[in-house]
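Known limitations

Files may contain more than one protein. Parsers should not assume a single record per file. Below, a two-record file is shown to illustrate correct handling: read the sequence, read the token line, then continue until end of file.
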Amino acid sequence: MKILVLNSRIYSIEYELIEMPDEETLAQGVLEKIGMETSFLKHSPAGKDEVRIVEPVLDHIRAMELLIKVLTSPEYGVISAKEEIGAVGHRVVHGGEKITKSSLIDDSIKKEIYNHVELAPLHNPYNLKGIDACEKLFPSVPQVAVFDTSFYQNMPEYAYLYALPYHLYKQYGIRKYGFHGISHLYTAEHTAKMMKSPLNKLKIISCHLGAGCSITAIRNGSAVDTTMGFSPLDGIMMSTRSGSVDPEAIIYLMKIGHTINDVLATLNRESGILGVSGISDDMEQVINNMHKKDRRAALAVDMFVYQVQKYIGAYYVVLGGVDAISFTGGIAVNSALVRTLICKPLETIGVKLDKEKNEKCIRKEGPIHSGASAVKVFCVPRDEHLFIARETCAVLKCGDGKKK
């Protein structure tokens, strides 16, 4: 079965067409700047050169029409007609408490996605737009929603509740939801595969370090705790997001005249690596400036590394030890230096990197620990699209959902 995997955002759609259960990528790409005259599509068909198409795309349904046109193109397409697509799998950010697993999309699932628009205003509305566009263009094709939050819905109550009046949780759903669940679960499954050990026998700390950053403690295949909370803003500092901040600091900013929109912009787009360094939200550029003795660049790196170390240490205790630490996300898989800095003080819990393996493991998977390390350490490039295809296949029972 050919499964089209979609990640629909406010201005873009990432896609991948995957033959399942063989897990063969037929084509992948991204359509950027939806709603603008300068929108463009980057399309990479298997075995052919990447194509770049510049064409105004005003909304998500026109984006999907262009995507189908490209996939079925005689010149750089990979299928002859859209009818060859057997299912569509969607990444959906927020499913709330009721949705605990990937689900066949029907009116009730769409309602739950809509009900959490206020909690994920930059994601859920556009996830829905992608779903609606596919319903119009593939009316008889089954669609499956794979949720970032579902992985965390079985966390212990003491881990997901805030110490606020309990009625605020019951009335408004204010709790830790967790995000990046698709990435963390894929990373954990792949880590178990590399260790040749069942996931349900392992304790893993998964570190997703990219534009967004989160760390998840995983015991026996289930999330025990995670750094992101009520929103993806919580936890460790990120490229432009602040991570955890004393709530009183936010109240103070508003008392002295900052509006809610000012504060939201500050916390989401002007903070993190960008805000501290004053240079860029790109860790590679910040590291280059650190090597040039830029004090604020060095401070940004030190803060980032420290916050990751702090949570790894905390989750080591929460899990009662750890079998593996895995790094995923753009920062983690692209920077041997960041991994080295994070892991150096973790020698106290038995972590020892192999310098040569670590330095060679750039943008590829593999172990980076030494033979003397009591804790395994891995680099795992993200492949959320494959995970979504597997989940879609499992929901529709098109094989076992995983490559033999």
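...continuing to the second record:
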Amino acid sequence: MQPDDGVAISFWVISIAMIAATVFFLAEAATVLSHWKTTLNVGALVTLVAGVHYMYMREYWVQVHKSPIVYRYVDWTITVPLQMIEFNLILKAAGKETSAAMFWKLLLGTIVMLLCGYLGETAALPAWPGWFGGMAGWAFILFEIFAGEAGGAVGGCNEAVASSFSNMRWIVTVGWSIYPLGFLFGYLLGFVDETILNVSYNIADFVNKIAFVLACWSCAKSDSASKKEVLLG
């Protein structure tokens, strides 16, 4: 890894940040009430899987100096469904009734989004239909977390849960937008080179994974603290 290779350095920094976040979330899982532990443990899996993949992506970039498309999509194929599970988990921890259909609908949107994006970027499908298919999957996810069952279920939750749920879905809305924009301006239109594209993706992953799980952690800590005060008081 060369000192002037900003992309390789960003891969390395983010891989370490993901592993550090994993240790933090696992340690914090021991400090919250039992019904929040699964939420933080799943969050730790998100950052752990990403951290391992980022090490492989860094090596691929250093050796081949091309975008690690396959590694990215393998990472997203594991971590994005885990993030979708988190919407279900925080609602369950808050005592809300959730159905299995809610998760399966979010998973369906994830599969369409990632599969179309991957097939489009690897030329297994024409690039434009792949991009539009990926956008359709993402739009379906957004509908579910804002206006669908997941979005409706958050009504009536306490302030901590509602705030964290809101932060999580805005990460999915704003933070995730970097990926279709990168596909559009980098791969389809050729306005952005691979160096800028990969640094942008790396920064986006840093925010979209760590900040997403931090929203769950904030909710778990706040809810646990308030309930402990009630028990002690």
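Parsers that stop after the first record will miss the second one. For reference, the second record is described as follows. The mean pLDDT is 90.
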